[in-house]
Amino acid sequence: MYLVIIMYMLFASAFTIGKAVLYYLNPIFFIGLRMTLGGSMLLAYLYFFKRKKLVIKREHIWLFAQITLFHIFIAYVFEFWALKYLSSFKTAFIYNLSPFLSALFAYIFLSEKMNLRKWFGLLIGFLGFFLILGNGESPGEIDKKAFLFLSWPEIALLVAVISSVYGWVVFKKLTMRGGYSPLMINGFGMVTGGFLAFAASFLFEGYPTLIVGNSSFTFAIFACLGYALLLILVANVIGYNLYGYLLKKYSMTFLSFAGFICPLSAALFGNIFLGEMPSPRFFVAVAIVAFGLFIFYRQELRCSNDI
After folding, report:
1. How far apart are the first and last CA of the chain?
2. What is the helix (H) or strand (E) element at residue 147, kind and residue range?
3. Which of 128, 241, 250, 287 has the most CB atoms around its CB within 10 Å?
């Protein structure tokens, strides 16, 4: 059980690290840097040790293109643009919408059954998320109002979550039906998505600019590279591999239910390292979402050997 807690604390720290690096670099350019570095490492490993897996079949080119677009580019670019204006813990909280959206996608696209209890749990979960939307906890968010109670960063983050969930659907198709290695899928998607992010950065952010602020130029460069490598290590290398290991030990149901640890950990890290202060509404929203998850997964949790 302690490994589950450690894993979600690692995922939470990724939001804190990401927020810190945005003090020095524009978000889209940083995604280009992070993804090309991380993807190059994965592809280099395959090239030197498992070169036979560096092959894409012609019939799967469209699926790989979707990996580039949805699994990497839209998911990460929109997330980090939103993170620039939202607090790290609020970003982590909204990203925790993934289990509910995954269930909804499975119902719509995979014809999975939903009973009345699951619909009720889904409704409670969405109510918890609506409680935190539009509350304007971050100063930068207040200046980015869109319409009704939503801000543009919140809308961008919701788009990122939806894109990420769909990206994992495509990812599963390539691993299950195509037989591709996760390293190959991620490596290809990260490199191509990284180049796409560089192009988008040039169009929307202009030439790369290092935001020095009160720091020296040298310190800012080392901070950016350090944060980028740390984020790759924490999230891409340790986090996702640990998740794969825990899937062999715990049910996916239990891991999804335990996901509410992530926004709580992000709130703790954000308070310690970034000086962010979550409001009482945030903790109420987390409790409501956790309750919704419990109702949604109650039967599966009873049947699980992990509880």
Report:
1. 10
2. strand 145-147
3. 128
Structure tokens at 131: 């409680």
- Return the amino acid letter for 194: G
Q: How confident is the model at residue 142 (pLDDT cuts 50, 70, 90)?
A: low
**CA 181 and chain centroid, separation:** 21
Q: 150-151 and 145-147 as β-strands: parallel, antiparallel, unpaired? A: antiparallel
The structure tokens 């659907």 sit at 169
Give the H or E element holding residue 35. Answer: helix 27-49
- Global pTM reads 0.86
Asked if 134 contacts 154 with a C-beta cutoff of 8 angstroms, the reply is yes
Q: What is the mean pLDDT of residues 239-245?
A: 76
pLDDT > 70 fraction of the chain, expressed in percent and rounded: 89
Beta strand extents in 113-177 (DSSP E only): 145-147, 150-151
Neighbours of 271 (CB within 10 A): 16
What lies within 8 Å, CB to CB, of 211 at 6+ separation is: 23, 24, 25, 26, 220
